[in-house]
Specification:
four-stranded mixed beta sheet
Length: 297
């Protein structure tokens, strides 16, 4: 049964040396979760500018529902300069403030969302740096008390504070991060820095998580769900770039959790989805579930 999914956060243009591609972790997540068969709505904003117009022209081809993607004249459409490193690894230089810092929802909007009945709420760190966005996230959580909340950590340089991350971790039922982010969280909050299972158990005890996933790049991932823990080996591919691979992993994580899969199956499936995205340029390349192949169980 498909799960209705709500995502909140940034839409921005990933600016490469020779091209620009529409992205932002929440947008990428919505695209990938939609390709897994789940109806999804993104809450965000673009600027009243040429890049905003271009974003709106791209969204239909990505299958993104535009109903809660607003336009604002206060700030320009978001942009992030992408710096490609070794083996397709990437860094980002993010321009702020941006249009996604100026999202507004009325009480009527929140009532309509509650009536739609989302089962998941996805959020990250970047957009929550803006006080107004942080407040809106709180209003969403209050309006949707039964929703399962996924925090995709995505720490970017100069775009988080320990206090903000602690608040977002405590609001989450499920957290997803890479191993560098795990190390950062361990240092910030006194969690175990050695042993991913120990980290997940300690984090769940402190913040109340029901599930956690740590991605390890080409080495695979680790998934912890309600006390059960599994490690899944990576999938060998020729990497084009890693933009969007983590967002695809998050989509596959939600898919597996929604279906009640055990952590080992979730990990194997999410690794395959992320590897497929990493093998193609950009954060939202074309792909289909049929390309994932059987999981062998």
């Amino acid at each position: 049964m498909p799960a209705r999914i709500l995502a909140f956060g940034e839409i921005l243009w990933d600016v490469f040396e020779t091209s620009e591609r529409l992205g932002g972790a929440p947008l990428n997540f919505v695209v990938h979760v939609g390709r897994l068969g789940h109806p999804a709505v993104l809450i965000s904003a673009v600027g009243a500018d040429d890049l905003g117009d271009s974003a709106r022209s791209v969204l239909p081809g990505l299958g993104v529902d535009p109903r809660l993607i607003q336009s604002t004249s206060r700030y320009p459409t978001g942009m992030a300069a992408v710096q490609l490193g070794v083996n397709g690894q990437v860094g980002f230089r993010i321009h702020r403030p941006a249009a996604y810092d100026d999202v507004r929802l009325s009480d009527e909007d929140l009532e309509k969302l509650a009536a739609w009945g989302p089962e998941w709420l996805y959020y990250g760190t970047l957009s929550s740096m803006a006080e107004s966005s942080r407040g809106l996230l709180g209003r969403l959580i209050e309006a949707l008390p039964g929703v399962r909340r996924l925090y995709d950590v995505n720490l970017r340089k100069d775009s988080y504070t320990p206090e903000l991350v602690a608040e977002l971790l405590a609001r989450a039922h499920v957290v997803k991060m890479n191993e560098d982010e795990m190390a950062a969280l361990a240092a910030l909050f006194g969690l175990p820095g050695v042993g991913i299972e120990a980290f997940c158990r300690a984090g769940a005890g402190r913040f109340g998580w029901q599930a956690a996933a740590v991605t390890l790049g080409e080495r695979g991932c680790c998934v912890w769900v309600d006390g059960a823990y599994a490690e899944a080996e990576g999938v060998a591919v020729q990497v084009a770039d890693t933009v969007g691979a983590g967002d695809a992993f998050a989509a596959a994580l939600v898919h597996g959790l929604s279906l009640g899969w055990p952590p080992e199956r979730i990990g194997r499936f999410a690794n395959r989805v992320a590897a497929l995205i990493a093998s193609r340029p950009g954060g939202t390349p074309e792909w289909s579930v049929g390309e994932i192949g059987p999981l062998g169980d």
